[in-house]
Design brief:
By secondary structure, the protein is mostly helical. The chain has three helices and no strands.
Length: 94
Amino acid sequence: MSALNEGGNAGVLALQECGVEPEVLRQALLARMDDQAAKDRSAMDRLTAPGDDAIRTTLRRHTADRQLLRQVLDSLESLHRRLDAMGAPPDPEK
């Protein structure tokens, strides 16, 4: 494709000498690449769709778990601040 896009090079000149129009060949290659890309996307969709759903479900669950963990940690931090403000002695096991 790059040789066809550049034009004027040895490959393009050889095609023209054989009676092949570079633009016609370029369009045919693009059409074939588009067809193949559609087939590849269709195959990838069939292969990855179930996995994508599992990944989304897992991420949602982990997101909820992280939010709950963040709330617990924030609550613990709040308790530590209150205990410090009240002059409570530090935890002897630390």
